[in-house]
Amino acid sequence: MTTPKNIIGAVEKITFPDFGLSAVAKIDTGASTGAIHCTRVRVVRDSKGQGVLSFTPFDHSQKRVKTHNFFTKIVKSSNGQTENRFFFNTNIKVGDKIYPIILSLTDRTEMKFEVLIGKEFLKENNFLVDVSIENG
Question: Under CATH, what is the fold of the domain 7-38+71-128?
Answer without folding.
Answer: Cathepsin D, subunit A; domain 1 (2.40.70)
